[in-house]
Write a structure and sequence with these properties.
3 domains, 24% strand, 18 helices, 488 residues, 19 strands, alpha/beta, Ribosomal Protein S5, domain 2, elongated
Length: 488
Amino acid sequence: MFRFSAIEPKHFEGLLRSGKLDEDLDEIFEQFWELSSYSQFELIKYVKEKGINPSLGVLSSVFDISKEEAKKFLRNPYREFYVPVVGQESKLVRGLSVKDLDSIITNHDHLKSSMEVIRDFLGKGFALFFDEEFSGESYMLPAVVSLYVENPPKDAVFTGKIDREGNIYEVNGIPKKRALAKRHNLRLIEPSYLDKVQTLKNWLDADRYDVPLFITKSKENYEGELKSFYSHLTLENPERTLELLEVLNGIPKEKLVIPTGQIPPEESAWENIVKEFYKRIKEIEKALGGREVLHIAINGASALAFSLGAVFGSQKPFVFYHFQNKAYKPIKVENVRILKERLKEYKHIDYTVEEGGDELAVAFAIAHHELQASVKEFMKEINPTILVIRYKKAGHVPVEDIFEVARESASLIQDIRSKRDYKSFHFFFSTPVAIAFMVGVAFGYYNRGYVYNLQRGQGENYVRVISLETIRKIREEGDEVSAEAQKR
């Protein structure tokens, strides 16, 4: 009889992958314990991946299991994972797990006592195969994650020991394992940040993640306002949320703050800020599998808030924090579609329309600065139709009215444009940033248009800071980059 163990492991893998050994699977499995760990691993992976199976009788004999258990082994889902192993040589050992079995099946019998601990925690059997020999118990946490957690991070490896209750314990060699993971462009998730496997599962398999994102016109020394924002978040434990986002999802705290500084009037500067904002939210989306709910606060110009809202343009829920009376007040937007609905009446806003040419200037006169006359003067060469939107009541817009004011404003713009085919839109703002952001979300970036900001200093002059075409380009290019990253 031919000895398959005589084939060099890499060559054995190549023969498997080419399908040249499919007719010999029974004979190969009968010699399973003569094969190297590498060849054993590749054989199991091939069978699970391709669904080309040996006879149940052979499989049950090799692993000393019933034919019913052999069926489960072949049918049940599997997952690959890595175990960082350090010593004389540092390496990532490949692991393969099959869940929901009655027994423990493995090619590393010397680890069976610690595998019994894993079974006691899970309350179920499983299969674990590895492509190299190693010793120790640090494989326990990565193995449990592969068997118990539905959404483990793709860019990370785990290390750690567990007990029968699922408590997580420190292991040796952390600095070397950290360096090993880094060489493979992976993050090491270390036991020192974790207490229980259940905590890990609850976080990684959550239906949604509440993620704070703070945009501030400060360039430095913004710690005080950031601390104030965090203190008003509608999260049970913001500090722990930030820690877990960093440790488990690879989103460091500094990625959740965008300090813009005072943005110069050049369009390229505004474009860079909008681009950075969209890049950050796409990175968050990728890291969290699209399950994020952003908690957004903006300390900056309303023109910027509108632009960020337009590029955000998401159908996902979000929470916007309006700063009023020295506190951040949350405005929950659970259904973005409501922001974009056409309304039949306007209970919170008044408006005037001054007819002009076939371009529409939209002036939000909702804050303290009265801008109708200055917009008309600034736009006189174009002679646009001017829509001025005001809050019906005197004084500041209370937080409980902000969503409806934004919703009615967005609907009104749609009503006005439906009566005439405007070539382009021009947006001017004297309004709370929360309203500007939400109107931006509702209006989007598909129309031709421009956003203007009031530049203060030597006199007050409007400056065109960004076009909707630029915002659309940022969005489309960002989506293309994200799609390519997902393929990789």
